[in-house]
Amino acid sequence: MRGKARELVVGAAQLGPIARHETRTEVVERLLALLHRGHEQGCELVVYPELALTTFFPRWWIEDPRELDGFYETEMPSPEVAPLFATAARLGIGFCLGYAELTPDGHRYNTYLLVDGRGNEVAKYRKVHIPGHERHEPQRPFQHLERAYFEPGPETFGTWSAFRGEIGLALCNDRRWPETYRVMGLADVEMILIGYNTPIHYFPDPTQDPLAGFHNHLVMQAGAYQNGTFVVGVAKGGMEEGVRSLAESCIIAPSGEILAQASTESDELVSATCDLNWCVAYKKTLFDFARYRRPEMYQAITRRQEVR
Ligand code: CDT
After folding, report:
1. Which of 81, 91, 92, 273 gives 20 to 30 Å between its CA and that of 147?
2. pTM higher than 0.90, yes or no?
3. What is the pLDDT of residues 139-166, one digit of tens each?
């Protein structure tokens, strides 16, 4: 079923905590250390987490606009991030990097950038599903103000022909929604890259806290299997400014099996050799969309937002 192998060695470059005082230059040094580990392991593509250049600032209600603006990038690569682009291009490694983007016309997005092995931008994805709350909620032990600090991305999930395959991008909360994977599945995606920052404590329902790791893998493994695609899930995890976030970065096969998983809550790179032709085994059998899907039966999915 698979035919000749089409192998891509991918690295999930997990980050441990980034302190509030840590500079972009210091963070980029950590990203470079992970890039070199990826190079040693033969990676062609290294995937970093969501908001990988700073601490996860939506945990604070920040009233000073200048302080808030300091967490966003107005150009990419910025002078601080340029060494990552230069070194990756010298090594012939592509990468995917999450950051807070402030556009020239004042839009704020939670952005994921895919760069090829020559340092050229392949794709820019802006997070579609923005979780958390819009206003300061002082009763919480910490905030999750993504809905105050980011607009939802204006474009749907894309896929791009790169790295000898069809690559899709998503960010954090997107991974919990089956629609995310299916939209890309319909574009024949073969590898979905997903960066995340997931605080383990969920204030609206703390009974979910012990299940954070289970839910993380549950959704990504199901998304991979049901769409016959690899999924690379990459965390910024560990205890950051008093808030513990989930690590457990992993590389998942189209079978839904985990091929590689991080074992720490720190900077760590895990890699896997992914034969993209493995996707065919699922896309042309159980999940042969053309043969078995019944889109006329699913119209409620796009007609309604809420439960009736
Ligand atoms: N970064 C991100 O999207 N985190 C969310 C937290 C949800 S709780 C407000 C996630 O789905 O992991």
Report:
1. 81
2. yes
3. 999 999 999 999 999 999 999 999 999 9
